[in-house]
Amino acid sequence: MASDVVPWPADLAHAYRAAGCWRGESLGAQLWRWADDHPDRVAVADDTRRLTYRELAVLADRLAEGLDRLGLRRGDSALVQLPNTWEFVVVLLACLRADVAPVMMLPPHRESELGAIGAHVDARAVIVPGMWRSYDHEALAHRVLPRLADKARVLVCGEPRREASARLGDLLEPAPGDDAAQRRERLDVRAPTGAEVAVFLLSGGTTAVPKVIARTHDDYAYNIRCAVAACAFDARTVYLAALPAGHNFPLANPGILGTLAAGGRVVMVGSPRPDAVFAAIEAERVTVTAAVPAVVLRWMDAAAATRHDLSSLRYVQVGGSMLSPDVAARIRPALGCGLQQVYGMAEGLICYTRPDATDEVATMTQGAPISAYDELLVVDRDGTPVPPGGIGELLTRGPYTPRGYYRAPQQNAESFTTDGWYRTGDLVRITAAGHVVVCGRVKDLINRGGEKISAGEIEQLLQELPEVAEVAAVAVPDPMVGERVCAVVRLHPERSLTLTAVRAFLTARGVAAFKAPEHLVVVDQLPHTPVGKPDKARLRALVSATLSDA
Ligand code: J2J
């Protein structure tokens, strides 16, 4: 429902339209423009299938009508939990064509995440891979159904094992008398006009009110256009999606959608493992890919010994968590390609170092915003702007940074100022040349290899353990993944607790495995702030002292 999405103020919306940022066109409608321009060019490839732009458009349209037959209507939403395969792209574009908003879940998500988010957005379908990495996602989807909208359906990419599931392959088959042109017209008539929700992206925790970001066709299309321009993507671009495709970074910055908009080729690979990635780079002559620092470190370690030819690779885009300048400087020698740093967020604002940046800018900064209409403000704890070049929390707003989370008025009062600035929770400084340098953060989360874990979510869950009197989750620095979760607990008298028990509890609660603590510290007393909350700064110091002694 439109009222659940916080709109931009009317005068600004008008200004963004007048300036040509918002064009009133659905992302789905663009698919056919691309297909008409270069129907026979390869749009998407994985190691099982290659689709031309025309084939992609035809399959997306078929599936769009298939979703309608399953009972999904304009304005509905569907949880999409698919690995990086050609089907991911078809499902994404089918949703955009059908005006069904895909909710970008990740393959490691379980009942806790799918249930909470599915209920929050009132999802009408769960689209899953069947079996993936020995895990039965079809069964997971059926366990989640009771928490979703009435008559919600499970759609399986693969061979369903239950009668109640629909099979994706069936919806992609031509029906007798299949007529692509007529179907295209039928769908064009129903196309959204811009302000409708195109996709739902996820942010942070899921236990209380999930933070779900509704991105409109207008704002996301603009974001994608600006990202394509900032990264100079064009028809020669061969983009490898190695990060989980449901993340905003590989999805649209410029990622999958940006590559398609530029007329390039998207290559989907099911894992960011060096062997899989290097083989795909060689096979498809990949020119650009995206990674979080933890992943690029693994690639750098493996590159020296690889027999694969990586010479087609021109850039690797790195973002999502802190990249140290010395690792940044080693990327070109190790991988033989340039580095483009990215500082971005599913909430909107995206910054890049440009392809022609000096080495200093590319290694030492996280780049500049992609739009001239992005507004950035660096403030101190009281909300007062700091002097130029000073460190403070970054606030931002602009034509592709929504003004609130979906259906979350209380959260919005915290995360947005009354005049519409989004509080990023990141500490930054902005150089004289306008480049953002990320210096730390004030928000209470743990950034494990680019996956954001809400400390509050983990604390709330662990508080359910009968042994636990009080708990705090903090980040522990880690050379490989940047940070890992450490649970600090005070136990009830005479009780004991092990890390294994904590992890087993979270698995049983249906929480994604990447969120489970990897360290456990038991204390007699938790340090508190004057207002009685666990003192995270002192806890981090205590934990690092305890773990380094161990
Ligand atoms: C330090 N922290 C960073 C960076 C993001 C492109 C790139 C990344 C994301 C993303 C994205 C960082 N150095 N270079 O959506 O399109 C941390 C900040 C930020 C948070 C956002 C994209 N780049 N971060 O990471 O929504 O704390 O988006 O606020 O997952 O990641 O996380 P997320």
TrEMBL record:
Residues 32-406 form the AMP-dependent synthetase/ligase domain. Residues 457-533 form the AMP-binding enzyme C-terminal domain. It comes from Actinoplanes auranticolor. InterPro entries: AMP-bd_C, AMP-bd_C_sf, AMP-dep_synth/lig_dom, ATP-dep_AMP-bd_enzyme. This is 2,3-dihydroxybenzoate-AMP ligase. Coiled coil: none annotated. Keywords: Ligase. GO terms for molecular function: acid-thiol ligase activity.
